[in-house]
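Chapter summary example.
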Amino acid sequence: MHNVVVTGGSRGLGLTICRRLTEAGYRVLALARSKNDQLDAAMEQVNRSGPCSFHFIPFDLAEIRGIPAVVKTIREEFGSIYGLVNNAAQGTPGVLANMHISHIERLININTLSPIVLTKCVVSHMMAEKGGRIVNISSIIGFTGYSGLSVYGATKASMIGFTRSLAREVGQLGITVNTVAPGFMQTEMTESLGTDHRAQIARRNALRRFPETEDVADAVEFLLGAKAKNITGTVLTVDAGATA
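The structure predicted for these 244 residues follows.
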């Protein structure tokens, strides 16, 4: 059973990805700061119906210097890491001129620095084992922009550049690196926009609706699977035609 680490796997998109990957036969290791009722219920349901394949790893990705130790712990307990899904991110909105520097630093630490360091620690083992899959979750905001999300957009754009360069570094060793870029979805991050604003955004999409978290999870599953063995360094957009 292949091990896949999913960051931010305790809720929202991350939890949906975890559930989908367990259904696909992976052993999923959800990395997040803390448990919640949703995660507990999902883990109980998955582990009750078959082999214990859904596990929680408590860790705060803001603790950058602790990342090597948590990767070592995961490998010692579960074995080799086949896949890494860098999903965890913060979407704190704010006009740049009014944002506190500490908020900017935290967004960059969580959204850019921590996934890069985590990937560094995981990919070094993948290189030794000559295989593995890395999927970074970005956002269409990383290439379209959005007023009030300039720092968030910068962090998501950085993950696309990271993906393309790392894919070239590790491709000869059988490791693929790709990005999934969702559009606006019905998640906690978009609740603050309000019903009318969300409806207005949906009407601009070619399909006149939001993509669902399950659609993004499908894309992640595809990129981890055998049918995507020759896909690397690319961005798979799941946005219901927002960027069409």
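To summarize the output: The chain has a mean pLDDT of 93.
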